[in-house]
């Protein structure tokens, strides 16, 4: 089930970025839901929610290296113990990190498109934040 969640969220993230990329020009926006939500195609060469700017390439490199190391460690754990019992929160974090990592490797930037007054982000960022929230919620099982 968790492998399905990983694959489904990764595919959903990639599809939404592709649809935005073919539908809007860079920095073009589209107001929806009576202006409560804006879609804007933004090329983000920084990290999560644009926190690391282009000027801090060393920090960005460290961020990508850290995400890669965590991802490899989690996959090695799952394969070694053949249980695949990673918490759903970690599965979502891994899915979001892999989704944005794919974009960085292929394009050199990530397509962000969901705009709020404070952030522009994509579904991968949303999955990462949701995963962190889920990790801090009390667990009802001993997975």
Form type = globular
Largest beta sheet: strand ordering: 1-2-3-4
**Count of spatially separate domains:** 1
Beta-strand content: 5-15%
Mean pLDDT: 81
Biggest β-sheet, characterized?
4 strands, antiparallel
**Which structural class is indicated by helix and strand composition?**
alpha+beta
In DSSP terms, counting alpha (H) and pi (I) runs of 4 or more, how many helices?
Answer: 4
What does it look like?
This protein has one domain. With 143 residues, it is of the alpha+beta class. Strand 1 (29-32) and strand 2 (37-44) form a beta hairpin. The protein contains four helices and four strands; from the N terminus they run H-E-E-H-H-E-E-H. Helix 2 crosses helix 3. It has helices at residues 2-23, 57-81, 88-106, 123-136, and strands at 29-32, 37-44, 110-115, 120-121. A four-stranded antiparallel β-sheet has the order 1-2-3-4. The model has no long low-confidence stretch (mean pLDDT 81).
Short key terms for the protein model shown above:
143 residues; alpha+beta; four-stranded antiparallel sheet; 4 strands; 14% strand; globular
């Amino acid at each position: 089930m968790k492998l399905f969640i990983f694959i489904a969220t990764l595919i959903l993230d990639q599809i939404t970025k592709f649809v935005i990329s073919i539908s809007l020009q860079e920095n073009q926006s589209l107001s929806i839901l009576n202006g409560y939500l804006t879609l804007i195609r933004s090329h983000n060469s920084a990290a999560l929610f644009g926190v690391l700017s282009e000027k801090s390439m060393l920090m960005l490199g460290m961020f990508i290296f850290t995400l890669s190391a965590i991802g490899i460690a989690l996959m090695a754990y799952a394969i070694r113990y053949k249980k695949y019992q990673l918490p759903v929160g970690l599965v979502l974090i891994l899915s979001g990190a892999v989704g944005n990592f794919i974009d960085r490797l292929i394009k050199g930037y990530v397509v962000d498109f969901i705009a709020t007054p404070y952030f522009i982000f994509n579904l991968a960022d949303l999955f990462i934040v949701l995963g962190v929230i889920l990790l801090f919620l009390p667990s009802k099982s001993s997975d």
